[in-house]
């Protein structure tokens, strides 16, 4: 069976690592699973009969393929030779979107035992709502609480920048223009996706249950076809009418409507057997003419932004 063009080896367009991909920008995927992570600990400590195949299998995957955020930084930043993080953009303030902030200090140019004032703060972009929530959860990341000459525990140094849930209020981060894409993440909650890239148009939407028409129009083929859509898919089957995420079939429906040149799915639970679902997606892609695959941690996609 043929694979959807380009996605199997993580390349879009002509580029490739070590060949003509040199000099091209690229997207590297980390944290592609859901907030419960895979393996789901409950499947292991309270196993069902028969046991969950995905979680059981994931125990036998080499540990470097199955790491948490900090371990991913250690593994993938070194593998892809990424020395630091230049800017951070937050989609919303749920725990799985912000609880890594405490570990941001490990990807800053930190000088051991220097006063925190010596570190160049990393720009971090978030809505006022998200910032207010973080101020409660991580007050020490928002307010400079140390005094001159005081010995302090090193913490991440962040330069907070307010963005708005409004596609007309674009902003620049790391030299790229970003268009905020408000989407519903549950009927009473707005999360942000982002549209970016000048040479290639990419939309990243990590947490969505429904698209407002205004957002969908912006990223649909009629508004200028996306080169790549990165989109949330959570459970394999619809679990509740009040779900805060798209399920697999809803994500594929959205891909069909938006009609990008290619799409990658993120946010999968342990419902997904990665290889089986990718085979199924390859068949879907052939039928629909839009290559779609599941993303995975460490995936690098070369794309000219
Ligand atoms: Zn499981
Ligand atoms: Zn969320």
Structure report:
With 305 residues, this protein is an alpha/beta fold. It has a domain at 1-38 and 174-305: 4-Layer Sandwich (Metallo-beta-lactamase, Chain A). It contains 9 helices and 12 strands. It has helices at residues 41-45, 53-58, 69-79, 95-98, 128-137, 139-142, 213-219, 248-258, 274-288; strands at 26-28, 88-89, 122-127, 158-163, 171-173, 176-184, 190-196, 202-205, 228-232, 263-266, 292-294, 300-302. It has a 7-stranded mixed sheet with strand order 5-6-7-8-9-10-11. Strands 2-3-4 form a 3-stranded parallel sheet. It is globular, with a radius of gyration of 20 Å. Mean pLDDT is 86; it is low at 1-20. Bound molecules: zinc ion (ZN) (2 copies). Residues 92, 94, 97, 185, 207 line the site of one zinc ion.
The CATH class of the domain at 1-38 and 174-305, by name, is: Alpha Beta
Unreliable residue stretches:
1-20
Strand order of the largest sheet: 5-6-7-8-9-10-11
Order of helices and strands: EHHHEHEHHEEEEEHEHEHEE
Q: Under the CATH scheme, which architecture of the domain at 1-38 and 174-305 would be assigned?
A: 4-Layer Sandwich
Separate helix tally: 9
Q: Report the average pLDDT across residues.
A: 86
Describe the global form: globular
How large a portion of the residues is in β-strands, by DSSP E? 15-25%
Which small molecules are bound?
Answer: zinc ion
Termini, distance in Å? 31 Å
Largest sheet report? 7 strands, mixed
In CATH terms, what is the fold-level topology of the domain at 1-38 and 174-305? Metallo-beta-lactamase, Chain A
Coarse structural class: alpha/beta
| Radius of gyration over C-alpha positions, nearest whole angstrom | 20 Å
- CATH fourth-tier homologous superfamily of the domain at 1-38 and 174-305: Ribonuclease Z/Hydroxyacylglutathione hydrolase-like
**How many beta-strand runs?**
12
